[in-house]
Amino acid sequence: MSTQDNKDHYIEIPLTFDPDHFWEIYNERWKTEITRIDRHYLQRIYLSRILISLFIFGFMMSFIQWAWALFIGLGIVLSVMQQMKLTKELRTMETALNAKREEVEHWLDDLKHTREFRLLLTPDHFTFFQDNTPHEMLWDNCASYETNENYVMVIGQGDGSNFIFPRKAMNDSDFFILTNTVEEKI
């Protein structure tokens, strides 16, 4: 159904938001970051094992020949430096991800207090209603969109608002209409 064919055509879509739907979407979007954090944890574990082995081997070699002990000591120093670097990177990534999660949690807490949601699609703009508070965005002010089988995300220009609409928040026919309209307008 095209909104461009009829200039007076309006489509209203009732929405039911559940915070769990948004967590599924955000966890999917952050999957690469979570995977990188997990890899850093594994690298630290493996490096710790190598470091312990070097300590033991270096201790044993110190009784046999000092040259080997110095060589292994250098390996230990390099391993400790790499461990410190991985720890710093890991903390930075975890801090960034936790900041994003806190921002989403704050937004979802505000969302829980709203009783009614609906979306109005028009030829010139779309309006998202939270209770009776409208949030309007002209199609021309949309920078881009992202869509897949689980959600439609409309991204505003610059510091403009971003809107994310989970598929589970509406019935399948409304999701199809929303997806087609967004693809047509942006």
**What is the 3D form?**
rod-shaped
Mean pLDDT: 87
* Parts with pLDDT < 50 across at least 5 consecutive residues: none
Helix percent reads 55-70%
* Largest sheet, strands/sense/barrel: 4 strands, antiparallel
Q: Which strand-content bin applies to the residues?
A: 15-25%
Q: Write the H/E string, N to C.
A: EHHHEEEEEEH
> What is the CA-CA span between the terminal residues?
16 Å
> In which order are the strands of the major sheet placed?
1-2-3-4
The number of helices is 4
Q: How many beta strands in the DSSP annotation?
A: 7
Helix and strand content put the structural class at alpha+beta
Rg from C-alpha positions? 26 Å
Quick structural summary:
The protein is an alpha+beta fold. It has helices spanning 19-29, 31-64, 66-112, 172-185; strands at residues 11-15, 117-121, 125-130, 133-138, 142-147, 151-156, 162-166. It has two domains: 11-17 and 115-185, Pleckstrin-homology domain (PH domain)/Phosphotyrosine-binding domain (PTB) (PH-domain like), CATH 2.30.29; 25-112.
